[in-house]
Write a structure and sequence with these properties.
Layout: H1 5-8, H2 11-39, H3 45-60, H4 65-68, H5 74-92, H6 98-126, H7 132-160, H8 165-186, H9 207-233, H10 239-267, H11 269-289, H12 293-305, H13 311-320, H14 326-337, H15 339-354, H16 356-374
Helix pairs in contact: 2-5, 2-6, 2-7, 2-8, 2-10, 3-6, 3-15, 5-6, 5-8, 6-14, 7-10, 7-13, 9-12, 9-14, 9-15, 9-16, 10-11, 10-12, 11-12, 11-13, 11-16, 15-16
Length: about 400
């Protein structure tokens, strides 16, 4: 596939193309997971919790990206990670057993989490602080557009063509593999503005970013693991209904994510984070109390909207960080994000067996802690102004 030179020389186009490739696999895997796990593998909440904990282990180990950069250039490592995501997804339907689903999930997850780490790093390196929030919003919109395509293909395959799970997984994973190959063969290797550290970087002055990242990973699991499971187990949503719910979320994001990115640029990271966490407290309490399937779907859609506001956490880091720290800290922050994520699905899966509402009340408590921490984010973050408590010198620990 021949790509014009003027496109091959634009890193933002490559970022958009790869952002499109991710949902083709991950959105398909996520949309089909609960139904595939329950119908074909006879999962209960406990097995689902274990699977989701296994899925998060590669995210916990994302700091390993920095060591791989000693061997592989960052841009090429992104292509390899994208290919692993596609491969794991393509194989999922061919192994309908507990162990089989665990193994294919780990393969898929290694690719997904390492790619997400690298995408964040490359996007922050290739964009200026003045427009990075808008660029990140555009990447979310591009991924959401691909999600719409994915949900449409799943609906077509499930409802009209009545394809088995294995063929839907194979097609969607294969598309991601194809885009990874096209990207590798077609785009130039873009220069790095600043040489990145190739060792782990942990700085005391990034403490607020680390804490917010940790809490974000903890409460995110409540949505990713248990909100979707609630729809299937409690309200009996089918594959096509879950796909339709995801389709609504993706459609809204196509239009709103770029605008949210611009809004964050206008109101600042502090206000954006306060809006996000205040809203999430109400949403999680709603999950705990809801008894109506339509209201639950509404909460699910509102919940998903708040994820675009998480751009603010990335741009906050971009503004306080030394440029040479970005690649290493992107990996470290992904690992921090997944510390709680490794334990929460399995532990909360056990809690779920006795009280699903308690799981969501815990999510509300996590959002409340994040809200209090976000009050410490300064109005205008800089390398010397990382929190409202104290100032630190740029380049320090």
């Amino acid at each position: 596939m021949k790509i014009p030179t003027q496109i091959r020389e634009r890193p933002e186009v490559l970022l958009m193309l790869m952002a499109i490739a991710v949902p083709l696999s991950f959105a398909a895997w996520q949309t089909l997971l609960n139904n595939f796990a329950i119908e074909r593998v006879a999962f209960t909440g406990q097995e689902m919790g274990i699977l989701q904990s296994l899925r998060e282990i590669p995210g916990f180990l994302a700091f390993g990206v920095v060591f791989l950069l000693l061997l592989v250039r960052e841009q090429k490592l992104a292509y390899i990670s994208l290919a692993l995501l596609g491969l794991g997804t393509a194989l999922t339907g061919f192994f309908p057993s507990v162990i089989g689903l665990y193994i294919t999930t780990v393969i898929m997850s290694v690719g997904f989490h390492y790619y997400e780490t690298l995408q964040t790093s490359l996007a922050l390196q290739w964009t200026d602080t003045s427009n990075s929030a808008e660029v990140l919003g555009n990447l979310i919109a591009a991924g959401s557009f691909a999600s719409i395509l994915t949900f449409g293909l799943i609906w077509l395959g499930d409802n009209l063509l009545q394809l088995d799970y294995q063929w839907i997984y194979l097609v969607m994973g294969g598309l991601t593999l194809m885009i990874a190959l096209i990207s590798w063969l077609s785009f130039l290797l873009f220069p790095q503005k600043t040489e990145q550290h190739k060792h782990m970087v942990l700085r005391k002055r990034y403490w607020l970013f680390y804490l917010l990242t940790f809490m974000s990973g903890a409460r995110r699991q409540i949505f990713v693991v248990f909100a979707g499971f609630l729809m299937v187990e409690k309200f009996g949503y089918s594959v096509s209904q879950i796909a339709m719910l995801f389709l609504i979320n993706a459609t809204i994001n196509v239009f709103l994510a770029p605008r949210i990115g611009r809004l964050i640029g206008q109101i600042g990271e502090r206000r954006a984070l306060l809006i996000e966490y205040s809203g999430l407290i109400l949403v999680f309490v709603g999950y705990a109390l809801v008894e109506n399937a339509t209201i639950a779907a509404g909460l699910y859609i509102i919940d998903h909207l708040f994820f675009a506001l998480a751009i603010a956490l990335k741009t906050y880091f971009q503004k306080i960080a030394d440029q040479e720290d970005i690649a290493s800290t992107a990996g470290v922050s992904f690992s921090i994000n997944h510390i709680a994520a490794v334990a929460i699905p399995a532990v909360f899966g056990i809690i779920w067996m006795s009280s699903p509402a308690l799981v969501f009340y815990a999510g509300a408590a996590m959002a409340a802690i994040s809200l209090m921490l976000s009050l410490l984010v300064p109005e205008t973050p800089t390398p010397g102004r990382v929190s409202r408590l104290a100032y630190s010198s740029a380049g320090g620990n």
